[in-house]
């Protein structure tokens, strides 16, 4: 007559069990025994069932009200956080940290520095918060500076390096060994042009072209030497003098898998 809410005791297969308050059940059983007449017993059962239905409805109503209040409380806290965040951004903007504050609170909307107790930010609270916010704003300023530099470098690559690199590649032979634009960007010479020259000034076209050609030649020599080292270590050319002229055959010769054990090379046309 006084069951609790059903408990889930198995998710698969789904099974629930209704549990009872033992002392209450025993007391009701004793009371039921004292009722003698059949009609009285039926009336007693109906009375107790109605009592339980009313109490269960009361519990549901209370739980619904609590859930609604919880949602309203969360909404109030969110509004308090928004109001206080805006007020803190206003004060930080007055101190010259406008962009930094906008970025920080966008990345950290739930920071513990923003209380949800009240939307109003008192002067005493601000005095306490300001020393905590300063190093965070300095960090954000440095991040913004690095991002701005990165964008300026991207612009230089697009405006100056890409055309110079494209022109250089088109001026070379079709089967030439040339660096990719990434190889050029990562070179010390171009890195200096990209990062050390004043960003408010254009690069000199002659300097860009000369640097690109110099980088490409240095890159080519390094790659040729690397290839020659591979050839020198092969069984076929071990102990022999190997020159760059040998690499001209690389477009028509490859090491056949069937001859891998013998170390011989099989001439095979590639076109």
Describe this structure in words.
With 271 residues, the chain is mostly helical. Helix content is 62%, strand content 4%. The chain has seven helices and four strands, in the order ββαααααααββ. It has helices at residues 22-34, 38-94, 98-107, 123-170, 181-185, 188-195, 205-232, and strands spanning 7-10, 15-17, 253-254, 266-267. The strands form two sheets. A two-stranded antiparallel sheet has the order 1-2. The chain has a two-stranded antiparallel sheet with strand order 3-4. The longest helix has 57 residues, at 38-94. The protein is elongated. Mean pLDDT is 79; it is low at 265-271.
Number of strands: 4
- Name the shape in a single word: elongated
End-to-end separation in angstroms reads 93 Å
Strand count, sense and barrel status of the largest sheet are: 2 strands, antiparallel
With strands numbered from the N-terminus, the spatial order across the biggest sheet is 1-2
Q: Report the portion of residues in β strands.
A: under 5%
| Series of secondary-structure elements, N-terminal to C-terminal | EEHHHHHHHEE
Poorly predicted segments? 265-271
- Mean pLDDT across every amino acid position: 79
Discrete helix count: 7
What's the multimeric state? Answer: single chain
**Helical amount:** 55-70%
Cα-atom Rg, whole angstroms? 40 Å
Class by helix and strand content? mainly alpha
């Amino acid at each position: 007559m006084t069951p609790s809410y059903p408990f889930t005791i198995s998710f698969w297969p789904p099974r629930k069990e209704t549990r009872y308050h033992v002392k209450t059940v025993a007391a009701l059983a004793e009371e039921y025994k004292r009722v003698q007449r059949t009609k009285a017993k039926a009336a007693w059962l109906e009375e107790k069932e109605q009592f339980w239905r009313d109490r269960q409805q009361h519990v549901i109503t209370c739980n619904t009200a609590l859930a609604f209040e919880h949602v309203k409380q969360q909404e109030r806290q969110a509004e308090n956080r928004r109001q206080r965040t805006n007020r803190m951004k206003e004060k930080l903007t007055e101190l010259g940290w406008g962009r930094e504050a906008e970025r920080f609170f966008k990345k950290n909307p739930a920071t513990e520095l923003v209380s949800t107790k009240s939307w109003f930010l008192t002067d005493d609270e601000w005095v306490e918060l300001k020393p905590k916010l300063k190093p965070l704003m300095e960090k954000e300023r440095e991040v913004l500076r690095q991002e701005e530099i990165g964008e300026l470098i991207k612009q230089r690559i697009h405006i100056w390096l890409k055309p110079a690199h494209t022109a250089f590649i088109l001026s070379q032979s079709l089967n030439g060994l040339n660096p990719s634009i990434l190889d050029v960007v990562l070179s010390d010479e171009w890195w200096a042009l990209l990062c050390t020259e004043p960003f408010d000034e254009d690069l000199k076209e002659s300097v860009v072209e000369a640097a690109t050609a110099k980088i490409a030649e240095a890159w080519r020599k390094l790659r040729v030497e690397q290839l020659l080292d591979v050839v020198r270590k092969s069984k076929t050319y071990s102990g022999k003098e190997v020159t760059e002229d040998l690499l001209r055959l690389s477009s028509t010769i490859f090491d056949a898998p069937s001859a891998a054990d013998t170390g011989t090379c099989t001439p095979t046309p590639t076109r």
